Amino acid sequence: MGKNSKAFDEPIYDARSLGTGRMLVLGVQHMFAMFGATVLVPIITGLDVSTTLLFAGLGTLLFHLITGRKVPAFLGSSFAFLGGYAAVAPLLDGGASNKELLPYACFGVAVSGLLYLVLAFLFKTFGAGRVMKFFPPVVTGPIIIAIGLNLAPSAINNCADNWNWIPAITAIIIVICCNIWGRGLIRIVPILLGVLGSYFVSAIMDALGVEMIDYSQVASAPWIGFPIHFENTVFSLFTKGFDSGVLITAVITIVPIAFATMMEHIGDISAISSTTGRNYIKDPGLHRTLIGDGLATALASLFGAPANTTYGENTGVLTLTKVYDPLVIRIAAGFAVLMSFCPKFAAIIETMPSGTIGGISLVLYGMISAVGIRNLVETHVDFSKSRNVLVAAMIMVLTIGISYSAVGSLPLPFGGVSLSGLATGSLVGILLNAVLPGKDYKFEDELPNATGVDLEMTQGDPIEMDKAQ
Questions:
Q1: Among the four residues 54, 72, 149, 396, which has the most C-beta atoms within 10 Å?
Q2: CA 213 – CA 71 distance, rounded (Å)
Q3: What tens-digit pLDDT sequence spans the chain (469 residues)?
Q4: Is the CB of residue 135 less than 8 Å from the CB of residue 115?
Q5: How far is 229 from 223, CA to CA, in rounded Å?
């Protein structure tokens, strides 16, 4: 599209007016906006890249179907659940995927997706204001802070070996520069550019004799293949037998993370509303968008893909192009599905050096914790009140304390079940907030980003919705 294209002059709600060629180009742009972050999650967790791309596309299409094809949102891999995967199915020595325990973690994430449906029902029945008082920023903020801090050691471990700090620092510098000084699309895809730049540096080091990248799997990978592998799915647990204690532990460990991601979802839908000038919180309604996101997450997890979430990167593309037609997002989803059927492409992605992963993870995990702090600041949590101090303190000290204690989890006196630090801290925080007097949080569904939560690597500053709308 040239400078005179009306896509840059005024909002466009029907992309067909631009012609088929331009619609396809816009779809490809949206696909690349989500790409860097979406494929990073399976690389960090050990999940399959092809399966991830397939269910990012299918999850987006399911979301559009449930929301009446009204909301221009793309659903990509959620960073928030990284802590859950790390707790239930930590990577093996050398960064190998934990094939035995990953299906348990996926089951926990699938149950988390179903929790979205419960919140959607409560929103529809009682209204958002009554429900949200149980999940105020004084609860979700510290939970998010703890998620990032829990993950930090794994990022350091990825960087610590041999020459890995060189590509790691390269990735960090590129991400920072793109976020602070980048313009347009460059500012929207900092993770993708950081990965590419760091990978390029690793390739140069490899060519100079420093072993950084293993290309052996790329040569043997076929060009076309089916992206779902039964042994990676939740269904495989029920054919080979499973440990009920581990299954219940996975659910208890991971489900509390959904409280943070559901708040993130509300903030994302608000941001998309403010960008397009249409209030999607009212039409199709938060209950429908929550159902779409929850079902997409549950479906993806059952088949061995990461949890899904609405992507801020794609909201940034909407801002850049002013083309707000959800059809363009569905085109991007179609491209993601097509790419998932190319195992050779996935193999190339999986050759990403650990230094690159470590550098990106350092930024990402730090930003997750920083977003938790921002959540508390932007929503004006009053820490002069003892009840707020106690709620936040118990969440963080229990989460970090239990996670890095000698036992690593809190065993329960039945069924071989144990609570992770994050699960314990989250549940105690929610309970304390519910019983202590002085709850003063009011959710304003007419305002964007009312929850202050945004766990993705997004563009620029938040865009404010016109309060008069």
A1: 72
A2: 40
A3: 444 444 445 788 998 988 999 899 889 889 888 887 898 899 889 999 999 999 999 999 999 999 999 999 999 999 889 888 988 988 776 667 888 999 999 999 999 999 999 999 998 998 877 888 888 889 988 998 998 888 888 888 888 777 889 999 999 999 899 888 888 778 777 888 888 999 999 999 988 888 888 888 888 889 999 999 999 999 999 888 888 888 998 998 899 889 888 888 887 888 788 788 888 988 898 899 999 999 999 999 999 999 999 887 788 788 778 889 999 999 999 999 999 999 998 888 888 888 898 898 898 888 888 888 988 988 889 999 999 999 999 999 999 999 888 877 777 766 567 778 888 898 899 999 999 998 888 776 665 455 666 666 544 444 344 443 3
A4: no
A5: 16
CB 317 within 8 A of CB 76: no
Q: What is the rounded distance in angstroms from the CA atom of residue 430 to the CA atom of residue 135?
A: 7
Q: Give residues with Cβ within 8 angstroms of 211, minimum separation 6.
A: none
Report how far apart, in Å, the C-alpha atoms of 326 and of each of 71, 74, 323, 445 are.
6, 9, 9, 22
Q: List 12's β-bridge partners, or say none.
A: 323
Q: Could you give the C-alpha distances from 110 to 76, 81, 116, 307, in angstroms and in order? A: 15, 11, 10, 8
CB 308 within 8 A of CB 296: yes
> Which three-class secondary structure state does DSSP give residue 11?
coil
Nearest one of 125, 84, 113, 344 to 227, comparing CA atoms? 344
372 closest CA partner among 65, 83, 6: 83
Question: What values do phi and psi take at 70, rounded to 5?
Answer: -105, -25
Cβ–Cβ < 8 Å for 300, 114: no
Partnered with residue 75 across adjacent β-strands are 310
For residue 309, the cross-strand partners are 76
CB 46 within 8 A of CB 101: no
Which residues make beta-bridge pairs with 410?
A: 419
What are the helix and strand counts (H, E) for the chain? 20, 4
Residue 426: which of 263, 312, 296 has the closest Cα?
263
Phi, psi of 381 (to 5 degrees): -65, 130
The DSSP 8-state label assigned to residue 456 in this structure reads: S
Residue (of 116, 452, 411) closest to 267 by Cα position: 452
CA distance 285 to 127: 11
Place of tokens 């990073």: 40
Q: Are the CB atoms for 433 and 139 separated by under 8 Å?
A: yes
Token couple for 52:
């991830």
d(CA 274, CA 257): 26
CA nearest to 267, candidates 80, 461, 455 = 455
CA 95 to chain centre: 21
